[in-house]
């Protein structure tokens, strides 16, 4: 198990995305956490999360997802939970569930996920959620937790944007993104998602297609990066014009997150 990853029974893909070398130093460790949803967390899981001292939770899921799978919190949790009302994935579905519509094979799943990532940086409710995320990182004290349903697509995009704004090397940006494919109990996570996706779209979807939907691929993040660069020239300009992360906010992020 990668040393970044915390092993929980009911919370998938829980890990520290700090610690990377950045432009002006190194990202602090123990203050930037990311994961999937917490609706299935066990009491031991919640106690473990409680030990991290998290003061801010940024929930990138939409209203339907939060209603269907409300996240559990440990006793005594008094942190701030931030989210933007509405559907961040453009529907009531998580991105990987949305991409399952009309596909059968792994190649079709990969193409659907790539198309989804091309549009993900411009979805209105997700944009508002990402704006809250960067504002919280720049202004609040204490460790934060960033999560969506599976902790891989919306969360992966947000973490990659932060890394790029702070000057993390592209190899490390991609390494952190791809760590989803190794973090936690992959077989159990994929099996649970497979049941849900097949109930919604049919039994014709292959095991390989389910694995493709539930994993990440460099081409997915590259697709989002390409559209950002085509429209704005850089992640920095996108963040400033779309998310309000101007020079002052970038400086605040460096002050809070770089040791």
Automatic annotation (TrEMBL):
Gene3D superfamilies: Protein tyrosine phosphatase superfamily
Entry GO MF terms: phosphoprotein phosphatase activity
Domain of life of the organism encoding this protein: Bacteria
A Pfam short name: Y_phosphatase3
Family: Belongs to the protein-tyrosine phosphatase family.
Record protein name field: Protein-tyrosine-phosphatase
Organism per entry: Sphingomonas dokdonensis
């Amino acid at each position: 198990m990668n040393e970044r990853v915390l092993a929980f029974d009911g919370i998938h893909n829980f890990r520290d995305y700090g610690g990377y070398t950045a432009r002006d130093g190194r990202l602090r460790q123990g203050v930037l956490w990311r994961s999937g949803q917490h609706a299935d967390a066990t009491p031991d899981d919640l106690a473990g999360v409680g030990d991290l001292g998290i003061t801010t939770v940024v929930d990138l899921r939409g209203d339907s997802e939060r209603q269907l799978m409300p996240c559990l919190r440990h006793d005594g949790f008094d942190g701030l939970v931030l989210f933007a009302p509405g559907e961040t994935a453009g529907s009531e579905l998580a991105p990987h569930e949305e991409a399952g519509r009309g596909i059968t094979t792994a190649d079709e799943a990969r193409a659907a996920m790539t198309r989804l990532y091309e549009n993900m940086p411009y979805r209105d409710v997700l944009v508002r959620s990402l704006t809250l995320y960067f504002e919280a990182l720049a202004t609040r004290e204490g460790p934060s937790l960033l999560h969506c349903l599976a902790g891989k697509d919306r969360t992966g995009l947000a973490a990659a944007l932060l890394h790029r704004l702070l000057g993390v090397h592209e190899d490390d940006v991609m390494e952190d993104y791809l760590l989803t494919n190794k973090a936690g109990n992959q077989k159990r996570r994929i099996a649970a998602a497979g049941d849900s996706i097949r109930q919604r779209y049919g039994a014709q979807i292959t095991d390989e297609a389910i694995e493709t939907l539930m994993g990440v691929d460099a081409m997915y993040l590259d697709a989002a990066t390409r559209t950002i660069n085509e429209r704005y020239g850089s992640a920095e300009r996108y963040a400033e014009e779309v998310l309000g992360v101007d020079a002052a906010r970038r400086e605040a992020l460096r002050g809070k997150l770089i040791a």
